[in-house]
Give the backbone structure.
Amino acid sequence: MEKSNIENKMKVLLIIVSAIFCVLVFRLVYMQLIQNDKYSTLASENRMRLITITAPRGEVFDRNGIKLVGNQPVYTVSLANLGLVDTDDVIKRLAEILGSDPKDIQEKINQQKRLYEPVKVATMVSPEIVTRIEEQRLELPGVVIDIEPLREYPNGQLLAHVMGYVRQINENQLAENKDKGYKMGDSFGQAGLEYTYESYLRGSDGGRQVEVDSKARPVRDLGVKDPVPGNNLILTIDHRVQQAAEEALARSSNEALKLGHKEAMAGAAVALDVRTGAVLAMASYPTYDPVKLSSVLSQQDFDEIFNSPWKPMLNRALLAYAPGSTFKMIVAMAGLESGIISPEDAISCYGTFFLGRTFNDWKAGGHGRTDMIRALKVSCDIYFYQLGFRLGIDEIARVAREFGLGEKTGIEIPGEESGVVPGPVSKIEQRLYYLSANQRSKVKEIEQKYDDLLAKTNDDTERRTLQRKRSAELRAVEWELDWHDYDTIISSIGQGDNRYTPLELANYIAAIANGGIRYKPFLVSKVVDPGGKVIKENNPIVLGQANVSPRTLAIARQGMLEVTTPPDGTAYGFFNGFPQVAAKTGTAEVLGHDSHGLFVAFAPYENPEIAVAVVMEFAAHGSTAAGPVAEAMLAAYLGLPIPGQTYIKTE
């Protein structure tokens, strides 16, 4: 009996052992034959590493071949998730060496779905930190140190707002570009031309296959694929004019501060080639350091860039401002085109104009007898109050739009605002924000009702009747929703709802200078591959021809020339030793603040090549604050000595 039990137990044991053996054999066959590729790949990945060699981004040059943006080699630190149990310890130790937050490193690792592929966790690493990592190499499996190209700016912060900056791609950008070969840790243009021309500037990464030991330490190289650099950009920018603009903006701001204008901390300047629309300079002040934005920001740097009340990240050349008296050429041309006035018609300016209320000239006592040319020369407000009132806002707005005012120019960098041409529609749009929801609803109903009625009639008398009824209903909701005579009067000197970017103003002046042709401004002349082959070329694009007569344009140009002529042109103290320059000063009032100063100009007068527009925020006067910036830019373009700050009589 006992022997039988033992035999039965042996049979059971044999069956169990046989079953286990069969399972092991089956598993071995499954792994060796069926899943051979999978495990061979895993074993190879554990032994082999493909180290990315980052391609240099394309470089950027000005129109004369001066390098504006290049590349420099820097140390980077990456970490590969090896699937080890002590990964948390590695992250903690690495974060301590780098002086960063372990959570930030862990987050980057979590975003990397592929095992063993390094994720960049730090750039611009100092040699001292590299040494510390190498000293602790045994305790830091998966940590990779590489040398990669990083953006270099030979001219410091010059052209920062136009070029933008480069930073590691973020999650949203990675999702949007997932089919273009990007991965976590790659660089990506974040603003300006770096963003717009990302696909051209980005090169093609190479790689190095490396055999590693069990601690992920390199043992030997198995092959290298060289990276292909990105394409280079040749800009329309003139380095001399750009530098003159940026230095003059800073200088003018500092001088305005000394004069007691405590908010005069910002400004912008644009220069265009009037023959093509090419941007010769685009400057915004204050500016920022794009190098700081390429890596981890300290709290101090973050506050200086993003929390400063002066907002250095804003490209003010693309922000809209009231144009002040730089708008007066529009009103003058509207008067000539309408036929209600000739250049010789004169008024007597005693310093005030009364129409329901008193409107003052900038000069107490006025300018005496004034015709159109003199009105532009001395910037007589009374002349333009009266002319604007006689014209009406519709004709003024029509001519403004002929010169592209009130719409985006279409320049290739993001952030451009659309200007505002004053009129009944724009006034309502500007004031809707301040109304209650109920009032906004009523306004929309009124607008829709009269839009439908006006669309159904061609009778002028009926149209005027409908417009009067609409005005009455809008006034019943809110008095300022309707367009009034005083709106036209203040719009005639560039105040009210008038708002245009420095780029729009420069383009409008360029059109006056070149005979009415409105070009699309552009910043990139050519895209050239690493071998020097042109792969993209931007040619001038005509957006339109201003529907005004050559005679009208000639009179506007003559009035601008008189502005720089003694004894009483508002800009007569500038441009000594220059070829003839045509200009216009402007001062735009800002409620509760000092006025903005503006200045527009083109040169040479007889054969125009360059147009400029300058805005100095809260700096009080166009002649004293913005004029020196325009003078410096024109001097740089014409190859003349750049004058220091100049002060003359103000408008």
